[in-house]
Amino acid sequence: MKIGIISTSRADLGIYTPLIKKLAQDSNLKLKIYLGGSHHVEDINQAISSLGDMDVVVLGQSFSEITTFTEMAHGMANTLSTMTKTIGEQTPDDAYIVLGDRFEMFACAISVSSLKLTLIHIHGGEVTYGAIDDKFRHSITQLADFHLVSCEKYRSRVIRMGQAPERVLNIGSLSICDLENFPFKSKQELTSLTGLDFDKQVALVTYHPETINSQGVRKEIKNLLSALESSNLQLLITGVNNDPGNNTVKQELDSFISNYSNKVYYTQSLGRANYFSACKYASIMIGNSSSGIIEAASFKLPVVNIGLRQQGREQSNNIVNTSSQVESIQCSIDTALKIDKSDIRNIYSMSGGLTKAHAFIVQQLPRLIDQPRTFHEEQND
């Protein structure tokens, strides 16, 4: 069986990594990785290098930096055309895997579905009221033939959206399923990379624009930076997504970093090994990244979750939610630093999730792939 995995950003490629390695070990599967979308804006050569000797297909560049919703719409149209052209130039795979809710991932899903090819969606059923991605995620769910979700509530939601239960499997979060044998870097290695002292308090900071409330981006990032300015935390800041409003966030970050370079290390991307190592040694995570909701609890890492971007996602007990007001962020940082880390449990962690995903693809998929998809009606009591 031939499986195509579609990646459109560094974020989804990191989540895919354990699944890619697992499927690559199966001699009965022929795996192909499609790279496009925001990889071209970030660093596609780094993405290719991280995949080693995998069979990689690079999609043509369909957009540059996205700063407006008009640019995003044009980027979606171009990605749809590029993905369709790429599939048409080769023998199609038996199934294609997409992940999450990015606009360019949605475009790829439309292409695969329109060509009447089998589509598997990872991380469906989730809700993020503060991001336009919410619409794209639910739309991909309706296009997809099979679903690998990250918790039982999301499985129930996907089924309520009309998907047959035998086509929807809860596997937990893929991104954290290989932590038991993960090659973490040492504190010393991270200090050499960042110049930060991980024997003292370090905050891992990631902030993305709220694409529903896009008018307030500058005020919100200014408030966050004001709260960080008044703290004694060292700051490891990672880059912003390629979303409308990202240029505003970058402008404010550049100004802040130049004024506080003595306590700040900034990078567009740490890479998976460095990022998870930073999660392991950091004292707190601050911002509005999905990583704070889904991954951080596995590292016993307290999180200050700012604003509405992640509102609606199920949360573990390491999260302190706050508005984007300076005083509220400051108080939430103090509260989060006092969390008893020994009590933190990750609701997205599932033993054997990766094995379940592999079995689903090699056993359930061949059995159901040629059967017509029907709308599942929930039975009322």
Describe this structure in words.
With 381 residues, the protein is α/β, with parallel strands linked by helices. It has 14 helices and 13 strands. The strands form two sheets. It has a seven-stranded parallel sheet with strand order 3-2-1-4-5-6-7, sandwiched between helices. The chain has a six-stranded parallel sheet with strand order 10-9-8-11-12-13, with helices on both faces. The mean pLDDT is 95. α4 runs parallel beside α5 (103-114), α5 (103-114) runs parallel beside α6 and α9 (217-229) crosses α13. The chain has helices spanning 10-24, 39-42, 44-50, 69-88, 103-114, 133-143, 152-160, 187-194, 217-229, 246-259, 272-281, 290-294, 326-337, 353-368, and strands at residues 2-7, 30-35, 56-58, 95-99, 118-122, 146-149, 168-170, 202-206, 234-238, 264-267, 284-287, 303-306, 319-322. β6, α7 (152-160) and β7 form a beta-alpha-beta unit. The protein folds into two domains: 2-175 and 350-368, 3-Layer(aba) Sandwich (Rossmann fold), CATH 3.40.50.2000; 180-343, Rossmann fold (3-Layer(aba) Sandwich), CATH 3.40.50.2000. It starts with a strand and ends in a 13-residue tail after the last helix. 41% of the residues lie in helices and 15% in strands.
